[in-house]
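Why Retinol dehydrogenase 12? Reviewers of the renewal asked for a concrete example.
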Amino acid sequence: MELLGALSPPWWLLLLSLLALLLWATRRSPWEPRKCPADLTGKTVIVTGANSGIGKCVAMDLARRNARTILACRSRERGQAAVEEIRAATGNPAVVLRLLDTSSLASVRAFASAVLREEPRLDVLVNNAGVTGLPFAITSEGLEQTFATNYLGPFLLTNLLLGEWRGWGELWRLWRLLPAHSLLRTDLLKASAPARVVNVSSFRHSLGTADSAFLTGQRNPGGYDAAYNSTKLMNVLFTAELARRLQGTGVTANALSPGVVSTSIMRHFSWAVRALFSLLRPFMKSAEQGAASTIFCAVSEEAAGITGKYFDSSCRLALPSAAARDAALARKLWEASERLTGLTEQH
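Here is what the prediction returned.
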């Protein structure tokens, strides 16, 4: 027995092997984007965080379907490189870059103003941009950077493109961003119905806590891992409340998990975490495989008309966590988010 024990691999190696096996088993999705015949000729889509990873793969697929594809990216250099790559791969010249930093409400407003002014329609909005591994820090606008990037910025962007604000304060802020004599359409998604809002969440939302005090740094969620999990829970709560408010408009909203995907999102973590991640990388989904559930929600006939739901990484309807199904919590978070973004101002 002692000899067998000596020959047995250490517990951590067994655990790592089991995790690798589980990751490998979930790599493929039963829904294949390339088998979906959806054609987006004449339609316009926006994909945030589209210069790399899942976002770029989603944009590539939508451009291949002949959509006017707007890549919303923070970096002009990386964003333009992605535009050129997608144009070359798809033969679609209607792939364009617009700068957007979802951690900045000013940037979100400038982006939304340009879209509302220049785009005659918007059929699909994919809120994909996200970060993890960042230290807990406050932006110049008084917001915690991870929560602003992953949740509050997308919340504001979606509402602006829907015209879902109350009061004249927000409308005046958008007007001030326009060149003289420009026209501003304030209900672009609704006017393009049937339209879809797709929010990229994560299976890790089940580990999160939705506390609006996180948004401004009044309360620290306890590390970047907890912050990421909580933003992903907020994404699901936002989706549910948004869908409720959009009933009857022809605009649907759904959230999803891409699964465990090999992308550059871990770049801010320590070298030890990145080393472990590298060991498991061969067993994870590729960015292209991880994009499947996002594309499913954005274009598939199966998802048409479905709203307020959560899809897992296999493109199947799934039940999110109990907290994510708390309608009262969703309304409370929405109201706090409206106040922080200024959507409720009456002047």
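The domain at 31-341 is CATH 3.40.50.720 (Rossmann fold). This is the kind of structural detail the renewal will allow us to pursue systematically.
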